[in-house]
Design brief:
about 240 residues; MoCofactor_Util/Proc; 6-stranded parallel sheet; 8 helices; XdhC_Rossmann_dom; XdhC/CoxF family protein
Length: about 240
């Protein structure tokens, strides 16, 4: 790899911006494509596919064998609310290699005993979130049912363009959430990004089952090229 290519690669990775290194197997020539440039690249469909999957692969294009080496940031999951669902969701996400953080100012809930081996911040979202450097490769889940905690957190998720934003609550609860957020200047487009009621409709009832439905929805948002089919509509939460 040329020194210039390596320097660019390291810069993009440090900034948590995905890139793909394309190597022509026949002669070893290489070129680096930033995610922002995928659309203009002749291999854009293959680049986008492999980035979604997060896997490197060998492809053939115009009679040439090319190796696509994918460098994607580690996906993060920020959970607002140290509740029962979070206790099931955090270890599940960690098993899928997400970098997980739980934020809740209520110290009775946000305790190491309830969340062993998970990064835990017992502060209000306004204080905790700026230091987490949340970005597009972050999934964001708000599950406290407390507007004083969830609403400011959701505003931060909009600002950082998280790839997934979900919030616990029934449709009625979500409608009231919409009134509050829109009164604070949230656009219809941003509000529509919230997955609510949260999780895929798998008939989930228990906190553990709801955690599975949430993680499934996050995975679909990260990996699938299109929106989730209509039949996989949201699960109703209390």
């Amino acid at each position: 790899m040329k020194a210039e290519t390596l320097a660019t690669l390291n810069t993009e990775r440090a900034a948590r911006r995905p890139v793909i290194l394309i190597t022509d197997i026949s002669d070893g020539t290489q070129r680096l494509v930033k995610a922002a440039d995928f659309g203009a690249d002749p291999l854009h469909a293959e680049l986008e596919k492999q980035l979604r999957m997060g896997k490197s692969a060998m492809i053939e294009s115009n009679g040439k064998k090319l190796f696509l080496n994918v460098y994607a940031p580690t996906a993060r999951l920020v959970i607002i609310g140290a509740v029962h669902i979070s206790q099931a969701l955090a270890p599940l996400a960690r098993s899928l290699d997400y970098d997980v953080t739980v934020v809740d100012p209520r110290t009775a809930f946000a305790s190491p005993e309830r969340f062993p081996d998970v990064k835990l911040i017992a502060e209000w979202p306004d204080e905790a979130l700026p230091g987490l450097h949340i970005d597009h490769y972050t999934a964001f889940v708000a599950v406290t049912h407390d507007p004083k905690i969830d609403d400011p957190a959701l505003l931060h998720a909009f600002e950082k363009n998280c790839f997934y934003i979900g919030a616990l609550g029934s449709r009625k609860t979500h409608a009231k959430r919409g009134d509050r957020l829109k009164a604070q200047g949230v656009s219809e487009a941003d509000f529509a990004r919230i997955k609510a009621p949260i999780g895929l409709n798998i008939g989930a009832v228990s906190p553990s089952e709801i955690a599975v439905s949430i993680m499934a929805e996050i995975t679909a948002e990260l990996r699938m090229p299109k929106t989730i089919p209509a039949e996989l509509s949201k699960v109703s939460n209390p």
